[in-house]
Fold this protein.
Amino acid sequence: MGAGNGFAELQAELKRLARVKNAVILAHNYQRPEVQDAADFVGDSLGLSRRAAESDAEIIVFCGVDFMAETAAILAPEKRVILPEARACCPMAQMVDVEGLQELKDQHPGAWVVSYVNTSAEVKALSDVCCTSANAVQVLQGVPADREIIFTPDRNLGSWAARRAGREVILWEGFCPTHELIQLEDIVRAKQEHPAAKVVVHPECAPEVSAAADAVESTTGMVRYCRGDPAQEFIIGTEAGMVHRLTRDVPGKKYYPATRSAVCPNMKLTTLRKAVEALRWERPVVAVPRDVREKALLAVQRMVEYGR
Ligand code: SF4
């Protein structure tokens, strides 16, 4: 992609700057297609965290939202982590606060706190282990059997993963406003329009949507599923950007978004031009205060290790 759509020059400039400055460009699966196409790596939170930790680049340009750049800064404090759009946040991550979580911990002494990576660095610092949607089930299975589990902040991922893992969890009532836009009626309508298609949805979707799907997968799991399944058509229940990733990585099959309204406005704030300017001026930089980072690091490292 690029030639003929006006993005080619910006993509070339981003790559040139990255070469000169020894930077790596990471883009989440929900980013704009032209941003995904200019990245060195496109992936989900887990894959991108691993890339950030392993990269020997001096600068990481994180095309995503704030908690992702923070996670990279926790894992790789010696690198300069740039978030091209400083306003790109995750409303779900903002639904859990340190005071409320500390209160819940006090009510359940000894409980392990399992936090989705979609949390602030401060909440990670209060957590025993972080997870992503790609390894939430394994992380829950790894919690000692005699411990209660507090799961923050996503009630949908938490209840889905708990069922799969055979564990009980105390749920924080957070959710993703974008995934909750995907309704059961959207799935029903899409199935009527595409009767041969398999339905694959993200665990951030509401329980009735997950229950109606053929598969519930992280975004990386969706790539694997669509590649391995004999079906030729898929109804995709997650943020709309994922259709581009699938079309690129598993070509020759058809992908229909369950609804076109599932667009995360924060993910779309990052444009190619902003990425170029951010790398040119090497800002805005995302950094995590040392004391918070040190407390959060173990939980994040555990997350990166699970599911290898
Ligand atoms: S899609 Fe949902 S969980 Fe992901 S960044 Fe947007 S609001 Fe947060």
